[in-house]
């Protein structure tokens, strides 16, 4: 991390990471001089990929980005931010649909840890419609996600879907 700038944490479930996430990672790294990408392991929803897989995909996708570190965490995001000494939580905002939920989370996080600020970055328009949910759905039914996720993730996805099909027919 470069000195003089706050340590920033970009948390998420990244199931899997897509190009909209990477856009935020690249831009946040520019501003903060570095970034910790936190992979939440205790998310409410059932994930397609294990925490280890989600971390591995992110590490692969960010391998060329110096100053970007991928870590997994359990528990509250603000607790993890505190252990990192991070002053900033970075979140991406796509559209109005994200706003209400993110506003509530930011307010709760502020209440839990007033020293930590949530900073929102608007997703670049070309990625505005992207979500991990849509990526998983398209991949599950054999559609192409080329250009929407890093090349490595495309391979992980098709292997995962193939393995699921094998399991279903076993
Ligand atoms: O990629 P996502 O699913 O939008 O990420 C949501 C995430 C992981 C950032 C959020 O669920 C989270 O912070 N989980 C950790 C537990 C926590 O701190 N919950 C929020 C309390 S306000």
What do these coordinates show?
The protein is an alpha/beta fold and 170 residues long. It has a single domain (7-128), classed as 3-Layer(aba) Sandwich (Rossmann fold), CATH 3.40.50. It has helices spanning 19-32, 51-61, 77-84, 96-112, 132-140, 151-169; strands at 8-12, 35-40, 68-73, 88-93, 117-122. Strand 4, helix 4 (96-112) and strand 5 (117-122) form a beta-alpha-beta unit. It is globular. It binds 4'-phosphopantetheine (PNS). The site of 4'-phosphopantetheine has 10 residues, from strand 1 and helix 4.
Tell me the count of domains: 1
CATH architecture, by name, is 3-Layer(aba) Sandwich
Oligomeric assembly: single chain
Structural class: alpha/beta
- Count of DSSP H/I helices: 6
- Give a quick account of the main beta sheet: strands, pairing sense, barrel closure: 5 strands, parallel
CATH superfamily: HUPs
The strand order across the widest sheet is: 3-2-1-4-5
Tally the beta strands.
5
Name of the level-1 CATH class:
Alpha Beta
Report the end-to-end length measured between terminal Cα atoms: 49 Å
Mean pLDDT: 93
Are there runs of 5+ residues with pLDDT below 50, and where? none
**Secondary structure: helix percent:** 40-55%
Question: What small molecules does the structure contain?
Answer: 4'-phosphopantetheine
Shape: globular
* Integer-rounded radius of gyration: 16 Å
CATH topology: Rossmann fold
Helix and strand sequence: EHEHEHEHEHH
| Residue share in β-strands | 15-25%
């Amino acid at each position: 991390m470069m000195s003089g700038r706050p340590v920033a944490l970009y948390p998420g479930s990244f199931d899997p990471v897509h190009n909209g996430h990477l856009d935020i990672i690249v831009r946040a790294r520019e501003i903060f001089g570095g970034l910790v990408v936190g992979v939440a392991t205790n998310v409410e929803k059932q994930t397609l990929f294990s925490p280890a897989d989600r971390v591995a995909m992110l590490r692969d996708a960010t391998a060329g980005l110096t100053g970007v570190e991928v870590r997994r965490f359990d528990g509250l995001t603000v607790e993890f931010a505190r252990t990192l000494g991070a002053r900033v939580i970075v979140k991406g905002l796509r559209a109005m649909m994200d706003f209400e939920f993110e506003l509530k989370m930011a307010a709760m996080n502020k209440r839990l840890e007033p020293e930590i600020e949530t900073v929102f970055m608007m997703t670049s328009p070309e990625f505005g419609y992207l979500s991990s949910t849509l990526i998983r759905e398209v991949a599950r039914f054999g559609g192409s996600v080329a250009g929407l996720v890093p090349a490595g993730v495309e391979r992980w996805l098709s292997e995962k879907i193939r393995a699921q099909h094998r399991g279903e027919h076993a």
